[in-house]
């Protein structure tokens, strides 16, 4: 059943109809109004607009996952971490939900059990039943607090907010320090705000949209690793050197890193005798909260495609950076993002689409995702920016990491965070060859940016 967004009249549905549409688990009632912030069917939440592709594309071989971790200066006490986990889930209650399928759509359903701290597992397929129904996993790995998330639950900003709130509560319980709350660190004693649980995409309902037009992009090929193997190159970059190199070229650090990746793609393509496509594009996620406002802790992001087409010849780094910077600033403008986001909401609102049973929606959405997803980008770079911690917490935290899981259509993806005096860039991939990563490191070296790289299987 579709969301009722445009009517000013609240609509109440009978208990039996609600239960049927929600897959049998929605006894009671739910109410949807023009100014609604969440859909309530007792313990049910409708998936946000960005989430529908994730359950549709999930299989035994693939789940859209990412990993975040905080490295402390001392080994993690699992008993204390369990207490902090329970308090954090109470503060951000969507982390206490599971995924359930209704007759027409997927929903989030509240669980009656408590998540547990689990042993660290490889970052591959995510079994929801094998995880007690939860859509995330918390592990203690030596000095690290590790968070693995199925993307249907939240985006990078929501995930980092949960992890930092959990870390602050752990440090409070373990060492008796008092965190300063704000930003991505929430006070567990506060009640959850309805706006934090909202589907922020509702604000785009009723607006005219249009689909973005892109050409298929070049993809890196190589010898595949095992289906359960994901290789990661962890690169530490001095913050001051990256910032100075970007400033000298009138660019941001994200634009500089993206341009370096496009230049690396150009190097790899030059040596690829099977290369046919000439479009070199990096997919850069954009946090819509910074542009359109809001504080939802669910998914609320879009993306911009940055890069060049080398069909008429290659470009030097200076030109690539100039193009990438101009594209980033243009495509991130509200006037450019709004039609793209509005079109996705428009498709969700479509009455005919809403009437299609979920069992038929799944393969349809999956096919569209295969045709429209990674086909138009060569790589992904997700940069969560600088992680700011209160002064009382900094002595206890050594590093903050962000890693994207196995990609479906591309050979790999990169994720970046900044903490202290370093950027940490994790370049994960599902192929053995690391020609792209090596070309990227050479590009940074040519820019005068030093790096420390360490490779491991995750």
Q: Could you explain how this protein is built, in words?
A:
It is a single chain. The protein has 458 residues and is α+β, with helices and mostly antiparallel strands. The protein has three domains: 1-42, no CATH class; 49-204, Chloramphenicol Acetyltransferase (2-Layer Sandwich), CATH 3.30.559; 231-457, 2-Layer Sandwich (Chloramphenicol Acetyltransferase). Helices cover 31% and strands 23% of the residues. It has helices at 15-21, 53-57, 78-91, 156-175, 239-248, 253-270, 289-292, 317-331, 334-349, 351-354, 358-372, 435-446; strands spanning 11-12, 30-32, 40-41, 44-46, 65-72, 97-101, 106-110, 117-118, 136-141, 144-150, 231-238, 279-287, 301-309, 379-386, 397-404, 412-419, 422-429, 452-457. Strands 13-12-14-16-17-11-18 form a seven-stranded mixed β-sheet. It has a five-stranded mixed β-sheet with strand order 8-9-10-5-15. Strands 1-2-3 form a three-stranded antiparallel β-sheet, with no helix packed on it. A hairpin with a 2-residue loop joins strand 9 and strand 10 (144-150). Helix 6 (253-270) packs across helix 8. The radius of gyration is 22 Å and the shape is globular. Mean pLDDT is 89; it is low at 1-41.
């Amino acid at each position: 059943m579709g969301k009722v967004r445009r009517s000013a009249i609240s609509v109440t549905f009978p208990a039996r109809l609600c239960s049927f549409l929600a897959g049998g688990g929605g006894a009671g009632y739910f109410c949807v109004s023009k100014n609604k912030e969440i859909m309530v069917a007792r313990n049910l939440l409708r998936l946000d607009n960005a989430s529908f592709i994730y359950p549709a594309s999930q299989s035994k071989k693939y789940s859209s996952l990412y990993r975040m971790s905080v490295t402390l200066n001392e080994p993690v006490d699992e008993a204390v971490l369990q207490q902090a986990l329970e308090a954090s889930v109470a503060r951000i209650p969507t982390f206490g939900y599971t995924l359930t399928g209704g007759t027409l759509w997927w929903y989030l359903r509240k669980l009656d059990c408590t998540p547990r701290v689990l042993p660290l597992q490889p970052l591959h397929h995510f079994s929801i039943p094998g995880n007690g129904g939860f859509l995330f996993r918390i592990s203690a790995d030596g000095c690290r607090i590790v968070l693995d998330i199925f993307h249907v639950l939240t985006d990078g900003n929501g995930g980092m907010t949960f992890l930092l709130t959990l870390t602050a509560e752990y440090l409070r319980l373990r060492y008796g320090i008092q965190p300063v709350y704000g930003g991505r660190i929430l006070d567990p004693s506060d009640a959850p705000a309805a706006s934090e649980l909202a589907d922020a995409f509702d604000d785009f309902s009723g607006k005219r949209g249009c689909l973005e037009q892109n050409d298929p992009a070049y993809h890196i090929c190589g010898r595949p690793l095992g289906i359960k193997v994901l290789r990661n190159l962890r690169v530490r970059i001095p913050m001051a050197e990256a910032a100075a190199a970007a400033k000298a070229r009138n660019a941001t650090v994200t634009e500089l890193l993206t341009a370096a990746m496009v230049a690396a793609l150009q190097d790899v393509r030059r040596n690829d005798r099977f290369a046919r496509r000439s479009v070199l594009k990096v997919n850069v996620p954009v946090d819509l909260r910074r542009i359109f406002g809001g504080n939802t802790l669910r998914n609320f992001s879009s993306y911009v495609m940055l890069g060049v087409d080398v069909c008429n010849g290659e470009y030097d780094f200076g030109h690539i950076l100039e193009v990438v910077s101009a594209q980033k600033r243009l495509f991130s403008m509200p006037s450019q993002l709004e039609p793209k986001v509005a079109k996705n909401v428009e498709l969700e609102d479509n009455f005919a689409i809403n009437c299609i049973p979920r069992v038929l929606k799944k393969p349809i959405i999956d096919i569209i995702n295969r045709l429209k997803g990674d086909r138009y980008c060569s790589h992904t770079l997700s940069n969560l920016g600088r992680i700011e911690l209160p002064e009382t917490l900094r002595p206890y935290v050594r590093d903050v990491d962000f890693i994207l899981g196995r990609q479906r259509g591309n050979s790999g993806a990169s994720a970046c965070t900044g903490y202290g005096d370093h950027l940490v860039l994790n370049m994960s991939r599902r192929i053995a060859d690391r020609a792209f990563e090596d070309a990227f490191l050479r590009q940074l070296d040519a820019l005068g940016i030093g790096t420390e790289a360490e490779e491991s299987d995750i």
